[in-house]
Amino acid sequence: RITRHYKFNIKMQNVTRLCQTKSIVTVNGQFPGPRIIAREGDRIAVKVVNHVQYNVTIHWHGIRQVKSGWADGPAYITQCPIQTGQSYVYNFTVIGQRGTLWWHAHISWLRTTLYGPIVILPKKHVPYPFPQPFKEVPIILGDWWKADTEAVINQAIQTGLAPNISDAHTINGLPGLVSNCKAKETFKLKVKPGKTYLLRLINAALNDEMFFSIANHTLTVVEADAVYVKPISTNIVLITPGQTTNVLLKAKSKDPNANFVIAARPYATGPASFDNTTATGLLEYKKPSLSSHNSKNKKLPLLIPVLPKFNDTVFAMNFNKKVRSLANARFPAKVPKTVDKQFFFTVGLGISKCSKNQQCQGPNNTRVSAAINNVSFVMPNIALLQAHFFNQSKGVYTTDFPSNPPFKFNYTGTPPNNIMVSSGTKVVVLPFNTSVELVLQDTSIIGAESHPLHLHGFNFFIVGQGNGNFDPRKDPSKFNLVDPAERNTAGVPSGGWVAVRFLADNPGVWFMHCHLEVHTSWGLKMAWIVQDGKRRNQKLPPPPSDLPKC
Ligand code: C2O
Ligand code: CU
């Protein structure tokens, strides 16, 4: 087995965006961070050394972490943070996955600047199930704040109000044409006429789902969340924070002398204000060297793509429904056909009582909260995985997470009188190999809103989705158990529901949360504990000796 070694020095670096320079937290001084590249089956060892004043952890988003839960990364879930001056080696093997994933900080809001792509190539001599691209290009969507984002979120938590929004969205770290310094701050994709490119799209934005499009070009979606899908030909891709989407781009414009704008803009359904800036880049055709002389100083026409309305939920639902697994002999869809345990969780916003150390500015000393089943998750002081592994759950977590919401009402109608949520560090315990069916219903209590729910440690199959209230008598009969999308992040539709299935065959503690960072901060998160199996190869090994201490 090949091991790919990486060293991540977490350090401050001055970076200029929107014509202003600020000091940000980076890996090795790079923003966006370095690319990790491996083949399916390789082992990856990343030594993370913390040289900054903040506590840090890194998460390998979408990596299944089969029996390597200690390397998953979410702070206080699978590990205590790496403190200033300390280091930790994340050690894991890529099993049964190939495609695009990504890494990001998993503590507070540090992932604003700490993120980068993970490219997993197929095993040697194994081709893609689509035409071999001429070139592969990671494209990471993100955002940029002029302010220090740790201060932004800390202030929001103190006041109980919504945090400030970002100042721009970015493509590969660059805002593009919105910047007054656009000459230096625009991502350019130069292509050769006639060639096919594989764009590895990653949405690393903090709080916005994004539409992505390139003027006058059709994109073919071939992979989502590191799982091949049936090709979808489209002008617009919808991608939620946490998701990755590979698309093929054929450079065959009839008008290769134009400048084609690459655009990414939010899809936003929530009542909270969002940053509606469009990040832009440019697609340019390489000219044969002779003619380049002539066209050098000529102003080329700028072609701009058309994107859906910012709150186009119909587009979103239709796009998500089109994503289907290949489900063929080479890449079968291993959908659990039977279900051992069914869960119905509500997800949404509410309000909660302000705690003692806050000065909340919400009405009657309340703060904005977000919850699953009306429980807003409270971060423990030591890592749940440690507490579970060493049988020290007392005072750390409880296992009384409601398996059904404590209230029943019309989720798309009038909100209930009481929109207070409770709080706690509650988990669900699953015996090894439990086949789980989980329905996630948007509560719409403070307005309907889409929530990209991300599950660590597993991919789930999206067997159903719909608008309005989930109907347990009618909807399951329409579930797709043949070729559902297999993903690690799925949007709970605004004012609707999504049903997923997964097999709990990976022992450990697995975080599940909304990937809109503001909702996570407000408590839209919970954890699953998957117990060891009976056989020796079904147990989580003990932690590595350098696992950080709290
Ligand atoms: Cu992409 Cu829990 O994270
Ligand atoms: Cu959310």
Structure commentary:
With 550 residues, the protein is mainly beta. It folds into three domains: 1-127, Cupredoxins -  blue copper proteins (Immunoglobulin-like, Sandwich); 129-323, Sandwich (Immunoglobulin-like), CATH 2.60.40; 341-538, Immunoglobulin-like. Helices cover 7% and strands 39% of the residues. It contains five helices and 33 strands. It has helices spanning 149-159, 289-295, 313-322, 384-389, 517-521; strands spanning 3-17, 20-27, 36-39, 43-50, 58-61, 87-93, 99-105, 115-121, 135-144, 168-171, 187-191, 196-203, 209-214, 219-224, 227-234, 236-239, 244-250, 259-267, 279-285, 302-303, 341-353, 366-372, 375-377, 422-424, 427-430, 434-442, 451-455, 460-467, 486-487, 489-492, 496-504, 508-514, 525-530. The longest helix is centred in the first third of the chain and has 11 residues, at 149-159. It is globular and about 70 Å long. The protein starts with a strand and ends in a 20-residue tail after the last strand. The mean pLDDT is 94.
